[in-house]
Design goal:
Length: about 375
C-alpha cells in the first residue's frame, strides 16, 4: 500500500509556515521541500516538477482552499441521488485506481492537501436542528484517510461532529490507516467507511491501495473500537466468476464486523463518461474495463445493460440481507426504474431517498 513515505516532494507557501499541517509535513524525513513566495510562485514550482517528469502521485501541494467547504453531491441528471453533503479537504489521491473519475475530472497535477484552519460544522449548524440526520463525507474528491495520520484532519472532524447528535460524518478510504483514530473517545456518529471490491479487482484496478483482507481487518478493528462502519461496493466490475467472488466478499465482511454497527452499504456498477477511453492509460486493465457491452444512460455515462445491473444488485442485496435485513442499502446513481426493480420501492426523486435514509438512521443509529 502506498503511504506518505512514497511522497517525494512537498510544496508549500512561506506564508503558511504557521499552519499545523504544514509544520507536520516539514518534519517528515526523506522529502524535498519546495517553499514558494515572492521569488517562486506555487504555479512555477509545480510546473517545474511536471517538466522534470516527477509523477503526479509523488507530490503533495499544501494550500488554503478558497471555495465552499461544504456542498451538495452534484449527482447526475435522471438518476436518484442520496443528497450527500461533501466536505472539501483535498483534491486528488495517493492511490491510482484505473477506473477513477478523478483522472479526467480534476485534470490536475499533484495531491492537493488543504490546510484550512478551524474547519468546523458551524455552516451547517442550522441544518442539524431541522433534519433528522445529516450525512457529510470527505471522500468524494480524495481518499479521506490516506495522509490522515499526518494532517490530523480526521480526528479533529470526528471530535467536532460528535457535538451534533444527528450528524453522521463519513471518512471513506481504500486504506487500513485507522490506528491513530481508534482511541478517540468522542466518536459520536462518526462512520469509518471502506470502498470494497473482489481481490481480483483490487489487484487489477486499484494500484497502491490496501488489499481486501487488510480493509476488512481495519473495518473489524473500527467496529471493535466503537465506530459505526459503512461499505461501498462501487464500482462492481463484471468478469467471469464475478458473482461468486463478490458474494464471498459479503460473507467474509459481515462475519468479521457486527452488522448492527453497519450504518449503510451502497452498490454501484462500473460506469464511465464518454471521454474515459481517451483519458484512461493504454494498459491491459483499462482495455478490460471497457470490453464489456455498455450503453449510454440518461446522464450520458456508459453502463452495463440494465438487466445485467439489476441482476447484480439483486444478488448482492439478497446475500447482504441474509446476514442482516436491517442494514440500509442504496444504489449509487441509478434510475427510478432500476430502484423499483431491485428494491420494489418508488423513489420519485432524490429527496425521497434522502428522507428514507434519514428515517432509517434516526431509528437505528441516532
Amino acid at each position: 500500500m502506498r503511504t506518505v513515505d512514497d511522497i517525494k516532494f512537498v510544496v508549500y507557501n512561506r506564508d503558511d509556515i504557521g499552519s499545523p499541517i504544514v509544520r507536520r509535513f516539514l518534519k517528515l524525513a526523506g522529502k524535498e521541500f519546495i517553499e514558494c513566495g515572492e521569488n517562486r510562485s506555487m504555479d512555477y514550482a509545480i510546473e517545474s516538477l511536471r517538466k522534470k517528469g516527477v509523477g503526479v502521485k509523488d507530490v503533495v501541494i499544501l494550500k488554503e482552499y478558497k471555495g465552499r467547504i461544504f456542498q451538495r453531491c452534484p449527482g447526475t441528471p435522471g438518476m436518484i441521488c442520496c443528497n450527500y453533503m461533501l466536505m472539501n479537504t483535498g483534491f486528488n489521491c495517493l492511490y491510482d485506481c484505473t477506473y477513477c473519475y478523478l483522472n479526467s475530472y480534476l485534470n490536475s497535477y499533484g495531491i492537493v492537501q488543504f490546510i484550512n484552519r478551524n474547519i468546523s460544522f458551524s455552516e451547517i449548524g442550522d441544518m442539524t436542528t431541522r433534519n433528522d440526520a445529516i450525512r457529510i463525507g470527505t471522500g468524494e474528491f480524495s481518499d479521506s484517510l490516506m495522509l490522515d495520520e499526518i494532517t490530523g484532519i480526521g480526528a479533529g472532524l470526528i471530535r467536532g461532529a460528535s457535538r451534533y447528535k444527528n450528524l453522521f460524518l463519513e471518512l471513506k478510504t481504500k486504506s487500513d490507516n485507522i490506528d491513530h483514530l481508534l482511541q478517540i473517545p468522542e466518536k459520536g456518529n462518526a462512520v469509518l467507511a471502506w470502498s470494497l471490491n473482489t481481490q481480483r479487482n483490487v489487484r487489477m484496478y486499484e494500484a497502491g491501495t490496501a488489499g481486501l483482507d487488510r480493509r476488512i481487518r481495519a473495518a473489524a478493528a473500527a467496529c471493535g473500537a466503537g465506530y459505526l462502519v459503512a461499505f461501498h461496493f462501487d464500482p462492481i466490475i463484471l468478469y467471469d466468476g464475478w458473482l461468486g467472488e463478490y458474494l464471498d466478499v459479503v460473507d467474509r465482511l459481515l462475519s468479521a464486523v457486527d452488522p448492527k454497527r453497519v450504518a449503510w452499504i451502497s452498490l454501484g456498477c462500473f460506469r464511465h463518461s464518454p471521454g474515459f477511453k481517451e483519458t484512461a492509460p493504454e494498459t491491459v486493465p483499462s482495455r478490460r474495463l471497457t470490453a464489456e457491452e455498455m450503453f449510454p444512460g440518461p446522464d450520458g455515462k456508459y453502463r452495463y445493460l440494465k438487466k445485467t445491473r439489476i441482476e447484480a444488485y439483486r444478488a448482492m442485496l439478497g446475500r447482504i440481507r441474509s446476514h442482516d435485513d436491517t442494514i440500509f442499502m442504496y444504489l449509487c446513481m441509478e434510475s427510478e426504474a432500476v430502484w423499483r426493480d431491485v428494491f420494489d420501492v418508488e423513489y420519485k426523486s432524490s429527496d425521497d431517498l434522502e428522507s428514507a435514509f434519514c428515517l432509517h438512521l434516526k431509528k437505528y443509529h441516532a
